Amino acid sequence: MKEPVTTPRMITEFLLRLGPAAGLIALAAACARMGSPPGGPEDKEPPAVETFQPAPDSTGIAPGSRLAVVFSEKVRRETAEPLVRLVPPAGRLFFNWDGRRVEIRPADSLRPDMTYRLSVAAGLEDLHRVKSEKRFESWFSTGGSFAPGKLGGSLKVNDSIAVAALVMAVSSADSALAFDTQSDSGGVYRFPYLPLGQYRLTAWRDANRNRQFEFTREEGADSLITLGLEPLTVDFTLLLADTTAPRLRSVETPDSLTVVLVFDDRLDSLKGLANAGFEVRSPDSLGALLAVDSVKLDSLDAARVKLLLSRPLDPAGRYYVSFTRVVNRASLEALPGGRSFSFKPVKAPAAGGGRQR
Q1: DSSP, res 265
Q2: Is the CATH number of domain 248-342 2.30.38.10?
Q3: How many CB atoms lie within 10 A of CB 96?
Q4: What is the C-alpha end-to-end distance of the chain, expressed in Å?
Q5: By the 8 A CB rule, do 60 and 53 touch?
Q6: How far apart are CA 318 and CA 237, in angstroms?
Q7: H or E element that contains 22
Q8: For residues 321 and 287, what is the distance between their CA atoms, to the nearest angstrom?
Q9: Total-model pTM
Q10: Hey, which CATH number is domain 45-145, 2.60.40.3710, 3.90.550.10, 3.40.47.10, 1.20.1250.20?
Q11: What are 149-184's pLDDT values in tens digits?
């Protein structure tokens, strides 16, 4: 037996037979069963970080402790993960999501007695693509206290402040120990907790956000600093991109067996001296050749090239040093050149700390 078929016309005739009042009631009930329109109030509230783990300002955190961030709502994972940073870095970060919470596991163990910053950069998006322009960060330490070094300053380009420029401090003793921050809307940057020591401090406009200083495209500046217990202020004026070859600025003789060439650019750590040639002669460019045992970049300042001689320089002697194929970090090669110099021994202070006459 076939099931009866109900058509829209049959439903309409049935409602008319019920009368106006009953028809309205039935129609309202039918609408109620259909449900309310989808959507609801428009989401205009940007996502935020609700909590960090470890808790902000924590000390004595075990190197193997879990790191986590809890957001105020679910966020777009594919855009959130690149915004999460651990400084100083501990290798690649791996993420394990559970709703609003993400657990973060660095590939390398945390260093003992080190102050870390766990942060989420501006640009966090929720599932409705509402974006946050706020930066969130939390500091914690694997030691009993935070690192005592404090460094800060301002950044300018010509007469304008440099907003959102990247500033990086890399330890001279350990290049893997790198800290970074950004200048704020007033061009001010700060490192509140750094280990004491010597750093190469570099600031630049990271136009393509690859965190690599591109010397021929981006304004930047750098300096070698020593950070002690007293807070240090270093102000930078970012220079135009480097489009010139390196030039010899001066020649130094710290001792009788060492000649130091000081260039106006830092040289490429790999290619800077790979094909370079150096000669030291006495008393001029046509004089007798002095043997150079080795050539190397200064480990603390790549603008300085050290020549180690096989025999000592004579006091007050006249010499000439020349070079070829020296390359800076922008892969620009210096024109062959040279300079005359003399060796003047540094007098040692008299016994007892008195001045020599």
Answers
A1: S
A2: no
A3: 11
A4: 129
A5: no
A6: 38
A7: helix 20-34
A8: 11
A9: 0.64
A10: 2.60.40.3710
A11: 999 999 998 889 999 999 999 999 998 999 999 999
